[in-house]
Amino acid sequence: MPRSLTLLVLAAVLALVPTAFAAGPNVEARAYLVEDGRTGEVLLAQNPARQVPIASLTKLMTVLITLEHARPTDVVTISPEAAAVGESSVRLRAGEQLTVRDLLEAALIQSANDAAWALAEHVGHGSEQRFVFMMNRRARQLGLADTHFVRPDGLDAPGHVSSARDVTALARILMQKPLVRKIVGMQDATIAGGRSLHTWNDLLGNFPGLVGVKTGHTTTAGWSEVAAARGLGVTVYATVLGSPGRSARNADLVELLRWGLARFRVAPVVSATRVYAQAETSYGKGKLALVAPRSLRRAVIVERPLVEQVVAPMGVELPVRRGQRLGEVRVYERGRLLARSPLVASRSMGKPGALGRAGWYVGRTAHNIWGWVG
Length: 374
What we know:
Layout: E1 6-12, E2 31-36, E3 42-46, H1 59-69, E4 75-77, H2 80-84, E5 97-99, H3 100-108, H4 113-123, H5 128-141, H6 164-174, H7 178-184, E6 188-191, E7 195-198, E8 210-218, E9 222-231, E10 234-243, H8 246-262, E11 264-270, E12 275-281, E13 287-291, E14 296-301, E15 307-313, E16 315-316, E17 325-333, E18 336-345, H9 354-373
Parallel strand pairs: 12-16
Antiparallel strand pairs: 1-15, 2-3, 2-10, 4-5, 6-7, 8-9, 9-10, 11-14, 12-13, 13-18, 15-17, 17-18
Helix pairs in contact: 1-3, 1-4, 1-6, 3-4, 4-5
């Protein structure tokens, strides 16, 4: 019987270098960042940790805290304080009742400050300050080191700051929630009282693959947005903070999203037509090819080499059936497991009968004797 040893093979399998990435986008914002939505890897950034006002991007945390402490069907009674919050609003009236779901839509689509305040009072049991404490505590728990909240709506206030790095991380966390993904992808909606909502996100419906996320603007913060766009096999996040105007913000995001999505290609990382290893079989029946049962494709950064690891036995004992799992191939990108596939027998091989096995042993014995004599 052959020894069942393990063979490890390492090889770079992909390294495509496009010329389109020689120069990065020209962005006017105070800070920006492009991130791989699968891993959180920063692909491009300027001043990513710079603390700046973030305006209504604040509502990302307001929504997260709300969803962690309330149900969408909960009914909220609007307080005079919430109804009095100005600037972007849906004109809530004191004593009016709306569901949490309606207020979430108002806060995310219309960026309504009165809706955000109403959610804060509901979750904070009547205290907006208690809710702000919850926001800051959650920021610390999530490792958002550049962030400090003063208000739940994002209107300008001393000490109310975050960074491109933090708000992008927060957006990725929030986009894991199906309800949020649905709301931020809506351009229009109608909620209680016949209120019509329309998004401030100009790229929705205009930039291919855009799925959200949130805009923000105040005089101090400038024009800001966290945007997410899907390509083949990947979602790219782009954040701009403090663009000088609405059109500049949109242009910055288009540049960054296009740049980020262009970094990726869907490439074959495991091939069903390739022999990954050859294993010796027992009783001198020759080698058995080990193959992947199906090809796998993944979105990869094109100029980055991948590392392939093949784990397979040097020898197998018969009988073996076609498709029997005998090993594994793994593909890594900078230490992160990108894909894995079993390696299986490419064909069936039967075990020899008693006479065949006896003949093999006789032959082996004779060979060994001649070896000793020699």
